[in-house]
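Notes to self after the call with IL:
- keep both proteins in one doc
- input above output, always
- annotate only the second one for now

Protein 1:
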Amino acid sequence: MFSITKIIIYGNRFDSNSDKCPTLDEMVYSLFMKNTCRIEDYFTDKEIIKILCNKRALASKKVHDSHFLRNITSGVRHPNPKTKEIYNYFPPRKDWIRLNLDERNTRNTNALELNRIQLERTVWRFKLKYQNKPEQSPEWLTLLNKFLIEIRYSVFFDENIRLNTPKVILVVKNKEKNEYRPISSFLLKDLIIIGQVSKYLTNCFDPLFLNCSYAFRSAENSQNRFSHHKAVKDIIDFRKGHGNNIFVAECDIKNFMTVSIIK
């Protein structure tokens, strides 16, 4: 069913109470059979629209910040909103639903989050308004609905799906040593697919991680919120019971994230 991550698993269910060390196949089989999350739930209109609204609000913030910097300094390049694909899937700002003052004060959040909420409400109001008369939909809504369908088709039905080669941007890491960190910039559609599949797999595999593992944990773990705050707290608690003679070893895999660029 899921053409991007076709996983063929053999073997018996993994018994967590058994002393026998399970094979990888047994662990994955047990994990996916017992996991309640469904890949379809990560590609609903609601999920994708939430992602798009967040990216659109972020794009607005970047434009606002560039305006501010341009007014107080020189040499700042002003981004052109018309070149961003994300703008095609939303109405002009004058058509956005505005939160009233009381709701703004009640939520007590930042402008980025407020814009995201306003955008979501706007999109759903338009979708409901034109759901029975799609031929009268504004152009941006037609493009948005088409984009949503394209994403789901690529994920669930396209047997020959291929992600487009990302644009690699080199960010200066150490100017004196002429070192750069490659950053991959994917197309919007590919970015959403990669992000949602990653989120799904993270949530599926999260139960296999030990409580002493803090990186790349699921944000949906309601029992333990793994973050750098929790890591620091656990270190402090550990130190209280083991004295001050504690050593930390920092390890890294050399060039693990290095991308080879072939010209």
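Protein 2 (the one to annotate):
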Amino acid sequence: MMVHQRVPCSFITLLITTLLATILQDSQKQSLPPDTEETPASIGILLDSSASMRDKRDAAVEALKEFVKASPPGDEFFVVNFNQNAYMDTNFTKDHKAVIEAFGHMDPQGGKAFNDAIVASADHFREGAKNKKRAIVLVTNGIDKKSHSSYKTMLANLHQTDMPAIYAIGLFDPVKAEQERKDLDLLAQETGGMTFYPKDQKQFNEMARQITQEIKSRNKLDN
């Protein structure tokens, strides 16, 4: 004969109460909105406008448009077009249209001085950046031959407090252009950024969007 054990009523009540509390907690966790808040970034876009970029500039502008469009609305940007001189074509702004328009303010001509452009941009971050999260997106196709600032001086500037991470896009064959790659790789490594070497327009656009995600991730990690 099967013997049924009597369970005290108070124990059953406690069991049901505990079970309901667990279900309620799980339901509340599932109903919480995801943590989508992003720390805004201050970003300088430095676009090589030297003569050697003439056949690459359209591709660069197209990819940078993708980068800006994918960026959160809270990010602020300035744009520097540079050859042997650096030109601030838009100051810090959250207006994506103004940023994109600034890419077309200069026709490719002259030599290349990205050391000077980066040093000047680093000073601009000190003077006007509103956000603690800072990055430079540098697009270039070769080695610096016109800067007054040495590579060493440039790195020294970037090692100071609150300086930007540099995300460099090299528009050259990284195997053949060994010195150019060394310069960009070290620049990114020393500042906590990354380097990219796209082979075609599709890859260029994808890498530009990837930089947006990298900056977003950096913001969350550093916050």
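Annotation: Helices lie at 9-31, 57-70, 96-102, 114-128, 151-158, 178-191, 201-222. The radius of gyration is 25 Å.
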